[in-house]
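Q: Convert this sequence to structure tokens.
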Amino acid sequence: MKAAAIAGLGFRVHSGWAAVVAVAGPVKAPQVVLRKTVVIADPAIPGSKQPYHAAEKLSLKQAERLVRRCAASTNGLARRALRGIVAELRAKGLQPGRACILLAAGREVGPLAAILASHPRIHTAEGLFFREAMRRACRRSRVKVTGVKEREIVAQAAAALRLQAKTLRRRAGQMGRDLGPPWRQDEKLAALAAWLMLAKR
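A:
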């Protein structure tokens, strides 16, 4: 029985949502096989899109309860989104390979009290909050997942694929040409991350 072709996955995560792109085919000329925007914050929960911002004016105990509630909801939404993505790829005859989540510069944020005392830490913590939800979802779906700093994705992909950075950016832009909009910076960077994972499968 012929083994299923492998698809690389890339994620660019924001507060409450993520752009997801999967690519498959020859490493030198992959095609986009999936493009989605997944929602990972429940609008029925006040503050779920920016849980640390919402918790900033609460008492510490209330803040802890809110963050826990938002985390449980976001983790569940991320898991369901990943299961759907995996099912959609398999329906196309593709096996999910590695996944890459694009990261910010990254720094430690400390305990909740320290986060809420510093607005820059609140922003950092929220980025980590949603990226970690997607990372956990990948692991639950048994998709190998790694993180690459967003500012390094072009350099890493160019080195792995042996292409010049300007060529890589142009190719990433062309990938979405036949799909139509949206093909924003979110999708282009997610596609580069997915392409890098395809190269490393």
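Residues 124 and 189 are 20 Å apart (CA to CA).
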